[in-house]
Amino acid sequence: MSTVGALFGLALAFGLVLVLRGGPPARHPRLDDRLAPYVGRPDVSRAALRGGGRPGPRPREWVVAGRAVGDVVAGWIDRLLPGGAGIRRRLSAAGRPGSVPAFRAEQVRWAAAGLLAGAVSGGALGGGTGLVLLTPIGALAGGLGRDWWLSVQVRRRTEALRAELPVIAELLALAVTAGEAPVAALRRVSVACRGELGRELTRVVDESRSGAGLTTALEELAARTALEPLVRFVDGFVIALDRGTPLAEVLRAQASDVREAGHRALLEAGGRREIAMMVPVVFLILPVTVLFALYPGLVSISLLTR
Questions:
Q1: Is the pLDDT of residue 50 over 80?
Q2: Of the chain's two ends, which shows fewer C-beta atoms within 10 Å, N or C?
Q3: Residue 245 parent element (H or E)
Q4: CA separation for the pair 157, 261 (Å, rounded)
Q5: Is 110:126 a contact under the CB 8 Å cutoff?
Q6: What global pTM score does this model have?
Q7: Is 151's pLDDT higher than 60?
């Protein structure tokens, strides 16, 4: 009971410190908060705008307090742990609009859920040593689990981009061959395709129409993706635009290269799966087969030797 009381007291003290640090007296307003009343209405969400333009109900006080505590802890973690640039790059590769502090706040929530699960598991096992061991293990597993889930999201989106890239490259080549300008071809393909790469092309078209320029928008697309064939495709597209090379031929060559890269990736994946299939065959099926083949003979030999 003394250990449980000490843990609850430590949690209460930590919570009070977070509340004091995240309260209005200790929290300085950011530049975004100071400019928000002059540039728009940030309290109106997209769902509210679709529903008639009225803002939804204000969140409860405990939700506001929880968000404030999460922001404070996320800021601490972001200052203590390196790798903010890598996380920002992975968030862009996963297609998740968000910042590193927001991701750190999600890690804090996952760690809190893991801590609670560890505490409950330790209490169910009788408390004492189990509670002391499982509580930090659960918190660590929660934080690392959020990072693992981000890696899973990056891998899934990369696979989706790899599957869509050959088709979109062929459609772009056909549109340019038919006489359309590069921006018009990108707009037509982005409207026809509804996948991850189609959304990225829609973003490229919007950025080019807003004044950024098509070359700059394509370079930003290559910078925020984790797929090497897509980076090569964008580089070839940009070089063709800069040097005046016939774009249709370049796009057809790029589409052929993308298909070859996909074929090589498929062969590599098949080779890895073949090696992985050898593990159950060698260590499970083959010993059982040998045992069934030799066991009757061994029984017969043991009976003859008696």
A1: no
A2: C
A3: none
A4: 17
A5: no
A6: 0.62
A7: yes
